[in-house]
Amino acid sequence: MNSNKTTARLFRLPSLALVLANLAACSHFNYTQSDSPQPLTALQAMEPPPKVALVLGSGGPRGYAHIGVMRVLEEAGIDYDLVVGSSVGSLIGAFWAQGYGAEQIDELSKHGDVFTVFDFSLFADRGWIRGQRLQDFVNDRLNTPQIEAMPRKFIAVATRIQDKQPVFFRSGNAGVAVRASSAVSKIFSPVGIQGVEYEDGDESLPVAVRAARQAGATFVIAVDVTPVPGTEPADTSTTKREREAKRRQRIDPELAQADFVIHPDMGYNTWPTQSFLTKQDRSVSMKRAGCCRP
Questions:
Q1: Residue 221: in which H helix or E strand, if any?
Q2: Which of 69, 93, 146, 275 is most exposed, with minimal Cβ within 10 Å?
Q3: How far is CA 255 from CA 248, 249, 252, in A?
Q4: How many CA within 13 A on the CB side of residue 194?
Q5: Residue 231 to residue 150: CA distance in whole angstroms
Q6: How confident is the model at residue 276 (pLDDT cuts 50, 70, 90)?
Q7: CA-based Rg of the chain, rounded to a whole angstrom?
Q8: Residue 202: which of 85, 66, 119 has the closest Cα?
Q9: How confident is the model over 50-60, as a mean pLDDT?
């Protein structure tokens, strides 16, 4: 009888260990290393000032259209010396800052599917994706994971949760900065940096033209990949309509400060499949300047 009880206890030990491991994963993420990204609420002009800045907006899977925009600009011989990115725009911007071209980023995206980049967990903190895998995906593919040491100028945009104010990362660990910029509320776990929590840049500045202006850019190209107003299907829920309307209130004042706006029409609904991503990249490349307005 005692032997049976001992055996039962032994079988319960792995289950207990698994529960404890998952509970540990539930703990708040707080990055405290010496290379922590430094949050700025305003930017000083860069020296020398950027001549042309490319501002890449948020948009989840729609953000892959940014690659098509970059390809079009490359083919047209248009150089830019600063990229500002919110959410998925920060992910693409980080690789550009390291020296990747549009074709290389496109190739990289084919190896970064949802199971490679996202660490799903029922025990994630206030979401169901922790974000560590995204952070590692970025840092493992950068020669220099420090933003300030990259060969090109880059600014990642995130939102400070406590007051919903935008912050700008110009230095520090690129993977952590991209993780914070991409931490979609209630989907990704919030990202703590030195005791302060951050979430998706979309919550404050989906298209952060002001960051490029404050950095001293002479000419600003803004790329908005959110749904074009008025294209929503008739059965779109009231909640979704209201969410998009609030987002437009954050976007439109920023676009008004840009010198050139690119807003490709990719349809209203999006699906994070490889075929959709490839279609959006190619559609922008094919439409070229037809998707743009000064």
A1: strand 219-223
A2: 275
A3: 10, 11, 5
A4: 11
A5: 39
A6: very low
A7: 21
A8: 85
A9: 96
Nearest residue to 150 via CA among 135, 172, 133, 134: 172
pTM: 0.85
pLDDT for 293: 55
- Count how many residues are written for the chain: 294
Strands 165-169 and 153-160: antiparallel
Q: What φ, ψ does residue 291 adopt, rounded to 5°?
A: -95, 10
Average pLDDT value over all residues in the chain: 86
Q: Which long-range contacts (CB under 8 A, 24 or more apart) does 274-279 make?
A: 274/110, 274/113, 276/61, 277/61, 277/64, 277/109, 278/64
Mark residue 228 as left, alpha or beta (left: phi above 0; alpha: psi -120 to 50; beta: remaining).
beta
Q: For 32-67, give the DSSP string.
A: -STT---EESS-PPPSSPPSEEEEEPP-GGGGGHHH
**Beta strands 219-223 and 52-56, pairing class:** parallel
Mean pLDDT of 218-225: 98
Give yes or no for a contact between 254 and 209, defined as CB atoms under 8 angstroms apart: yes
